[in-house]
Design goal:
alpha/beta; Arc Repressor Mutant, subunit A; D-Maltodextrin-Binding Protein, domain 2; two-stranded antiparallel ribbon; 10 helices
Length: 298
């Protein structure tokens, strides 16, 4: 296989051939004319033929130089276009890993406001419950649920994780709901979810054994809420994620008690990306949106 000459020399040749001048090539590349001449000589020695004729006041390409120059210029133009495309994408596309319910029930309905503020920034969303490794996966940022303290990451708390039971009005009519213990008359969606025991304990129901119930769980909170709307049982959800369904009467919150978890939703990204403009813009928008939610629910 033919071994390529040093790329530094090829780069100098491309500029000199394009300008037909060592002086102008030196100015473009930030080099001295002597350095340009030296790199051209290295390249000529490497391939074994002159590429320029050195005339008293200027240089001109030899036949071999004219043969080589178009291919080199085309190759460098291809590199410029490729790097420009990558740079543009890096500056204008945010690749975000997020959780399903946060994406579908909170983020997506609000994205129009972000796009109106930042029409030059696109958001590419990947939904997954997995905690990504930023050193191995190509994401700019992620939404995580937890207590924080992830090594090497900048963390911004967004929303507290609150939970309360909800069910459809049609299902609620089947039994009288006067006190929290009455919920035990209904099918419970995802009864193994620790939130059920925590909510019943906070409601003063005491020790509740849900181990004998069929553990019907669609797999995430968004689907559990949809199952509740369909009348399949009571679901334990974050009320903020289903506020439109509650307002429209598709779901009801039978008791005002909402319990706050020790977990929160966070925006996280590697510390080295803190000053990247697109991430800063997205972070500031997220913080404004979550602050508005907190004020409205206060």
């Amino acid at each position: 296989m033919f071994k390529l000459p040093p790329m530094s020399a090829v780069r100098v040749f491309e500029a000199a051939a394009r300008h037909q001048s060592f002086t102008r090539a030196a100015a473009e590349l930030g080099m001295t004319q002597a350095a340009v001449s030296y790199q051209i000589k290295l390249l000529e020695d490497r391939i074994g033929t002159p590429l320029f004729r050195r005339l008293p006041r200027h240089v001109e390409l030899t036949e071999k130089g004219r043969e080589l120059a178009p291919a080199i210029t085309e190759a460098f133009e291809g590199l410029r276009v490729a790097f420009a495309a990558v740079e543009e994408s890096a500056q204008t596309v945010i690749s975000l890993s997020t959780l399903s319910t946060f994406a579908s029930n909170w983020l997506i309905p609000r994205l129009g406001r972000f796009q109106a503020l930042h029409p030059d920034i696109a958001l590419k969303i990947d939904v997954s419950p997995n905690i990504i490794d930023f050193t191995k996966e190509d994401f700019d940022a992620a939404i995580r649920s937890g207590r924080g303290g992830w090594p090497g990451l900048t963390e911004h708390p967004l929303l507290s994780v609150d939970f309360t039971p909800v069910l459809s009005p049609a299902l609620a009519e089947r039994h009288e709901l006067r006190e929290p213990a009455d919920l035990l008359q209904f099918p419970l969606i995802a009864p193994s979810d620790i939130w059920w025991k925590q909510w019943f304990a906070a409601a003063g129901v005491g020790e509740v054994d849900l181990s004998g119930r069929t553990d019907h769980s669609p797999g995430n909170q968004h689907l559990e809420g949809m199952a509740a709307i369909a009348g399949q049982g009571a679901a334990m959800v974050h009320p903020l994620f289903f506020k439109d369904d509650l307002a429209a009467g598709r779901l009801i919150q039978p008791f005002s008690l909402t319990v706050r978890s020790a977990h929160s939703y966070w925006l996280v990204y590697p510390k080295a990306r803190k000053r990247i403009a697109k991430i800063a813009a997205f972070r500031e928008w997220l913080e404004r949106e979550t602050q508005d939610d907190a004020q409205r629910s206060a």
